[in-house]
Design goal:
The protein is mainly β and 339 residues long. It has a domain of 136 residues. It is 14% helix and 39% strand. Strands 5, 6, 8, 9, 11, 12 and 13 form a 7-stranded mixed beta sheet that branches. Strand 3 and strand 4 form a beta hairpin. The longest helix is centred in the N-terminal third of the chain and has 19 residues. The chain is rod-shaped, with a radius of gyration of 50 Å. The N and C termini lie far apart (177 Å).
C-alpha cells in the first residue's frame, strides 16, 4: 500500500525501519488507529463540504464533560482544548415511504368479438402496458446537497422493496377471454391503469469533530484526544416513477345482423373488472351535432309583397284599334251642305 495515511508516508519509510516499528507495541497500536480511521473514512458516504455548514460546533463545556478528570493543571498551567472539523457524513434513516401522486387510464387497443349464426371470432384478447407508463425511480429533489453514494443506497432499497407506505405491484400484460352469447357481438376497449408514485427518503446528517488537549508546559505533547459527533438533523430526498398496475376492458353488447337474430339495441356493459373508486372512467368525445338546415333567405326591406298595393298601371299602347291611319287628305264632312 503506497501513499500517505494521515501524515504517515508509508512509502518513504525504509523496509527495515518499518519492520522495527511494527515490532514495538505502541507503534502497532498507533498504526492500527490510523488504518481504522482510514477505513471509516472510506465507508462513510462523502457529502459536499457545505452540507454540514449549519451544524453547531461542540462547546468547550461539552468536551470537558467527555474528558472529565483527565483535564488537569500541570506545573500551574491548565490543559487547553483544541478542536478541528472532521467528516460530514450521512445515512439513510429507516425505509423510504412510497405514496401515490395520481392515477390515469390509457386506452391501448379496441376491437370486437361475435358469435353469429354464420361466423364466429376469436375470443381471447391481450393488451400490454404502454412504455411511457413504466419508468425507473428518478431523483427529483436532493435537499440541496450532493448525495453521491446515498442515491445508490436509496435506489437499492426501492428496488428490493424495502419501503413503507403503499406497495407497488406491476402488471405488464393482461389477457381476457370474451365469449358472446349466440347472436351477440361485443365491442371492447382495452385500458391500462397506471400511476405516478413518489418515494421519500430521510437522510440523517452528522458532523464529526476531532478534539485534543495540550499544555503550554509540555509544548507539543498531546495528553488526551478523541472525536465527538454532532447531529445536524435530517433532510428529505424524493424519487418518482410511473408504474402500470392493471388492465381493464370496457364492453358494449349488440346483436348480430343475421336473419333470425333479434334483440335490443347495443347496451354498455361497463368495465370488467370494476374500476377502483379513486379512478375516474375516461370521457369519450361526444359526436358532433348534425348541422342544422339554413333558413330560407328572407326578402330584404322593400321587396316584400304588399297585399293592399294597387296593381301597376299599364302603359298605353302606341298603336290603336282604329285601323291604319289615312295616307291622304281627309274629306270635309260638311262639304255639299246647304247654307
Amino acid at each position: 500500500m503506497h501513499g500517505a495515511v494521515r501524515g504517515l508516508n508509508v512509502a518513504a519509510v525504509p523496509k527495515a525501519a518499518r519492520t522495527e516499528c511494527l515490532m514495538q507495541p505502541h507503534a502497532r497500536t498507533r498504526l492500527l488507529f490510523l488504518w481504522s480511521g482510514l477505513l471509516l473514512l472510506l465507508l462513510a458516504p462523502p457529502l459536499a463540504a457545505d452540507t454540514c455548514d449549519g451544524c453547531p460546533k461542540p462547546t468547550t463545556e461539552q468536551i470537558k464533560k467527555i474528558i472529565g478528570d483527565k483535564l488537569k493543571t500541570r506545573s500551574g498551567s491548565k490543559d487547553r482544548i483544541y478542536m478541528d472539523k472532521g467528516d460530514c457524513i450521512a445515512g439513510v434513516e429507516g425505509a423510504p415511504e412510497v405514496q401515490p401522486i395520481k392515477f390515469w387510464l390509457r386506452e391501448i387497443a379496441s376491437g370486437e368479438v361475435w358469435n353469429c349464426p354464420h361466423s364466429k371470432s376469436h375470443d381471447t384478447i391481450t393488451i400490454e402496458a404502454h412504455a411511457a407508463d413504466k419508468t425507473e425511480w428518478t431523483l427529483q429533489a436532493s435537499g440541496g446537497f450532493k448525495l453521491k453514494g446515498l442515491v445508490a443506497e436509496v435506489e437499492a432499497k426501492l428496488t428490493r422493496g424495502e419501503t413503507s407506505g403503499v406497495t407497488i405491484t406491476e402488471v405488464i400484460k393482461v389477457s381476457k377471454t370474451l365469449v358472446p352469447n349466440f347472436c351477440k357481438r361485443i365491442q371492447w376497449e382495452g385500458y391500462f391503469l397506471a400511476g405516478r408514485f413518489k418515494a421519500t427518503a430521510t437522510i440523517r446528517i452528522k458532523q464529526e469533530w476531532a478534539w485534543w488537549t495540550k499544555n503550554p508546559t509540555t509544548r507539543y505533547k498531546v495528553h488526551e484526544k478523541g472525536t465527538v459527533t454532532v447531529d445536524c438533523g435530517t433532510q428529505d430526498i424524493e424519487f418518482q416513477r410511473n408504474a402500470p398496475l392493471a388492465g381493464y376492458f370496457h364492453l358494449t353488447e349488440g346483436s348480430c345482423e343475421d336473419a333470425g337474430c333479434s334483440g335490443a339495441l347495443s347496451k354498455k356493459l361497463g368495465f370488467f373488472p370494476k374500476l377502483p373508486p379513486e379512478v375516474e372512467p375516461p370521457e369519450k368525445p361526444k359526436p358532433a351535432p348534425e348541422p342544422e338546415e339554413a333558413p330560407e333567405d328572407e326578402p330584404e326591406f322593400g321587396d316584400a309583397e304588399d297585399p293592399d298595393a294597387l296593381p301597376p298601371e299599364e302603359e298605353p299602347d302606341s298603336s290603336d284599334d282604329l285601323g291604319d291611319a289615312p295616307t291622304g287628305p281627309l274629306d270635309d264632312p260638311l262639304a255639299g251642305a246647304g247654307s
